[in-house]
Specification:
With 247 residues, the protein is an alpha/beta fold. It has 2 domains: 162 residues, Rossmann fold; 62 residues, Helix Hairpins (Orthogonal Bundle), CATH 1.10.287. The chain has 9 helices and 9 strands. The strands form 2 sheets. The protein has a 7-stranded mixed β-sheet, with helices on both faces. Helix 1 crosses helix 2 and helix 4 runs parallel beside helix 5. It is globular, with a radius of gyration of 20 Å. The protein starts with a helix and ends with a helix. Bound molecules: S-adenosylmethionine. The site of S-adenosylmethionine has 16 residues, from strand 2 and strand 4.
């Protein structure tokens, strides 16, 4: 059975899509998407031999070899221009996902939707999308097996029903603080609209982590430690303030 994380990613793929799942590992996502009749074709891309073999085996066992093509290669190298209209990249860091997209921009011209699930560095990925003319149309957050995941869904701004200026519209929080564009990129413009309990859990964990770093900085004798500690304190204050002001 598909994990809730992968199922939620799958649900963001429009019916009839030609999918490219990059870093597909066991190809669980394209296999389930094919079995559920969501996609007409898929490329499952893998750069590493172990996961590539696992994907080949999984696709063969599912009987979906006509629909899913398993290919070995780096990032978007495995697809031809125009071959995919939806790209999913899940389970890697946000900067790696951004680097993969950046190295394959010629393959993105035909893409109508990106469904991305960074394990860390969500803000880096949001900045990349924003700067490259992709607009977030939806963000999801979930907890599974003690980990918190975010799923970012983006469409080309030229085709999307909403613009980046609207999505990242700065707003005043009920407590009076300003949720600036910079902070919206950090927290997620959609996630802050109707924050779910797990969103607060994520940022409380983040604050705990920062408090531990602050603690070790305060005991450090390195010359830059004091300055770093001040920056971190200021950042923690903003996070606390924003969390306190969200509905
Ligand atoms: N996408 C699956 C998921 O979310 O469950 C698998 C995630 S797994 C943690 C990450 C996979 O990405 C690994 O199998 C790894 O080999 C693959 N990978 C890492 N860098 C890649 C790249 N540049 N191109 C293609 N695959 C890559």
């Amino acid at each position: 059975k598909l994990s809730r994380r992968l199922q939620l990613i799958l649900e963001q793929i429009p019916a009839g899509s030609r999918l490219a799942d990059i870093g597909s590992d066991h190809a669980l996502l394209p296999v389930a998407a094919a079995q559920q009749g969501v996609i007409v074709s898929a490329v499952a891309g893998e750069v590493n031999p172990g996961p590539y073999e696992a994907a080949l085996k999984q696709v063969k066992e599912s009987g979906m070899t006509e629909v899913i093509h398993v290919r070995k290669g780096d990032g978007l190298d495995v697809i031809a221009p125009g071959e995919a209209d939806v790209i999913t990249i899940a389970g890697m860091g946000g900067s790696l996902i951004a680097a993969i997209l950046g190295r394959g921009v010629d393959k993105l011209a035909s893409v109508r939707r990106l469904v991305l699930q960074p394990n860390v560095g969500e803000d880096t990925l949001r900045v990349w999308l924003h700067e490259r003319g992709w607009v977030l149309i939806q963000e999801l957050i979930l907890e599974e097996d003690g980990k918190i995941y975010e799923i970012l869904v983006a469409e080309p701004e030229s085709a999307a029903a909403i613009s980046n200026d609207e999505v990242y519209q700065e707003r005043v929080l009920p407590g009076g603080s300003m949720l600036t564009r910079e902070w919206l990129l950090r927290f997620g413009p959609w996630l802050t609209r109707k924050p779910e309990p797990v969103f607060y859990d994520k940022w409380r964990l983040e604050l705990d982590k920062m408090a531990r770093i602050l603690d070790s900085l305060s005991r450090s004798e390195l010359p830059a430690a004091a300055e770093k500690a001040e920056d971190m304190k200021a950042e923690m204050n903003v996070i606390q303030e924003v969390l306190a002001c969200l509905p």
